[in-house]
Amino acid sequence: MSAAFELRGLTAAVPGEKAAIRLVEDVSLHVHAGETLAVVGESGSGKTVTFTSALGLLPKPGRVIAGQALLEGVDLLTLGPEALRRMRGARIGMVFQDPLTGLNPVFRVGAQIAEVLRAHLPLSRQAARDRAVELLARVQIPDPARRVDDYPHQFSGGMRQRVLTAMAIALGPRVLIADEPTTALDVTVQAQVLDLLGDLRDADGMAMVLITHDLGVVARQADRVAVMYAGRVVETGTVAEVFAAPRHPYTIALFRSIPDIEAPPGTQLAPIAGSPPEPARRPAGCAFAPRCFAASEAAGCHATRPPLTGTGHAAACHRQGALEIAA
Amino acid sequence: MSALLDVRDLRKTFGGGQTLFGAPRPEVRAVDGISFTLARGETLGLVGETGSGKSTLGRLVLRLIEPSAGQVRFEDTDVTAASTRALRAMRPRMQMVFQDPYGSIDPRMTAGAIIAEPMTAHGVGRAEAAGRAARLLAQVGLSPAMAARYPHEFSGGQRQRIGIARAIALDPSLVVLDEPVSALDVSVQAQILNLLAEIQARSGVAFLFIAHDLGVVRHVSDRVAVMYLGRVVEMAPRDALYGAPLHPYTVSLLAAVPRPDPLKERNRPRIRPIGEIGSAASLPTGCRFHPRCPRARLVAARGGDTVEAEGTRLPSACVRQDPLLAPAGGAAHLAACHFPHED
To answer: For the ABC transporter domain, which residue ranges apply (chain A) (predicted)?
Structure first.
């Protein structure tokens, strides 16, 4: 089965003083219809840049210098601006973290949803408005026929996120990219929005990419996961595989640093020393080596970049074999 | 022995009165009658969603904002009645750490000056303060040589270490921490949580730890208070609260936390409160959680004295009577619910 959305060797960079600074390097990912791929990483890991690059939304002077972004077989990176704009929205929808910036405060939410519809479809004003009411109902906004005429500030944070979701799915996209869609929301509302996204994916058979820093959200929502660190995918596999037996020391360390609500009392947290390197200061070898509990000179951790190896469940680590023996 | 901190029926109301054009302005009861104590060396975790009033409560305790009513006693002195001068004399003993380490420190001061400032403000000589600042940097895991650097040269985690060093510079007995790790990545967050535990073990400082992350709060707290729309709805020793929560709001909060375990996540029933928190400007009648409460709906379905409300039938107690925070499990386990032992 071919993937609904696939990145191959995506590399994006900004000009630097001497050489170009690579924000993301050689990122390969795919997601099938009806499936959720979670992309996990800390701030600066490149998880958001990967997808803004793929969709032609990377702010200047950043640009994609290598790779492909295939949406149902069509490479988005070869499309002109107008064709790309038609593709976004119609075939690939996006939901971002901050529900306030995604909505225009001076227009009624119904008008904003209708605008999305009319930009792509030959609909009358009334027909677009009726569709907007239907979409608000689909994202479970109570009393949608009345709320369609409200302004964004009349909605709570969770309701605004639902409105943005309605806009993202308005044209029936095959792929939905949700970038930290629940990070700004309280935990009870976060759970409601995640339920909604899961239900929409199942009902429409969309492929979903969920960008998050929260491993709990990954466990709840995703089928497969890609862990990013310093601009690269360092581990990927099914959620079951990666959570049961993480292979990359970064993933292993990440699990040990989360305070879990059901951990036995007195459990110590094992933090990862230091902080992730900035894109311009990534070390020559494995970018995680300076913080890694398993790094060694003999394995070449500080000298060369480890490739992503393994079929299905893969990790980019020189010490993989040794770690499995130790574990 | 009396408590380090004793908070009684504390209230803060914003707004009210009239607007410029004579229209009534809604009164927001941000903190609406809260009482608790904190012992020396203890950590009380304070959790709640946006709009629950938890940050306002933290500021009231230190009298960074003036309460509308109620009393705060700290080391047997009435903070709420203290003169400006008396309050200033107490400041070294009660400190605060904020969420955004960048917003709460002056970008034009060096790290050394930021940490030394509270000391010189309270009469420590400059040379002495600089020496102590260097030692504090080492205590929070930074190099004393970093004293000459400016805030923008530090990462988020390092800036929070500076904020903590400044807060503990005068050896306080109480530090209020308002979302101290929520702006940090998980790997860095764990470093700061461990640092706080070390500082507490060494100095015996008490923490009022305000956060929305239930995992973080469980990790650091001895006792936990759950806030909802200006009230504490449940307060208990940590393991009692997490192991056997009694208030339906606490139950649904804990159920909503996504846990890093795919097997448990997939098999877990979806217990969700209805809708969102609402506003402290228009509080519901009776129990303020009743419009969202899944338990009230279950209890009403089993019969008893019910009334028509929220488009369904709810127990009349929930709609009409404001439940008090009262012992419900053991003496130390308090819950404000008419039906603390129903499922």
So the answer is: 5-255
CB-based contact, A43 to chain B, within 8 Å: yes
Total number of residues shown for chain B: 343
Contacts of B253 in chain A (CB under 8 A): 187-188
pLDDT tens digits for range B88-139: 999 999 999 988 766 777 889 999 999 999 999 999 999 999 999 999 999 9
Going from N- to C-terminal start, the domains of chain B cover 5-221, 247-322
Q: Do A253 and B253 touch (CB under 8 A)?
A: no
Q: Are residues A75 and A26 in the same domain?
A: yes
Same domain, A60 and A37: yes
Interface contact B194-A218, CB threshold 8 A: no
Residue B2 φ then ψ, to 5°: -80, 160
H-assigned helices in chain B:
54-61, 84-90, 111-121, 126-139, 156-168, 186-203, 214-220, 238-243, 248-256, 262-266, 294-301, 316-320
User: In this structure, is residue A262 part of a structural domain?
Assistant: yes
Q: Which of A156, A158, A261 sits opposite B257 (nearest CB)?
A: A261
* A13 and A52 assigned to the same domain: yes
The minimum CA-CA distance between A199 and chain B, rounded to whole Å, is: 13
Residue A81 near chain B (CB below 8 Å): no
The low-confidence residues of chain A, meaning pLDDT below 50, are: 325-327
Q: Is residue A35 part of a domain?
A: yes
CA-CA distance, B335 to B248, in Å (whole number)? 10
CATH number belonging to domain B5-221: 3.40.50.300
Does residue A122 have a cis peptide bond before it, meaning omega lies within 30 degrees of 0? Answer: no
Domain hosting residue A13, numbered range:
5-91+173-326
The predicted-structure confidence for B308-339, as pLDDT tens digits, reads as follows 988 899 999 999 999 999 999 888 999 999 99
Residue where a domain stops, chosen among A172, A205, A230: A172
Run of H or E residues at A95:
strand A92-95
Give this complex's ipTM: 0.83
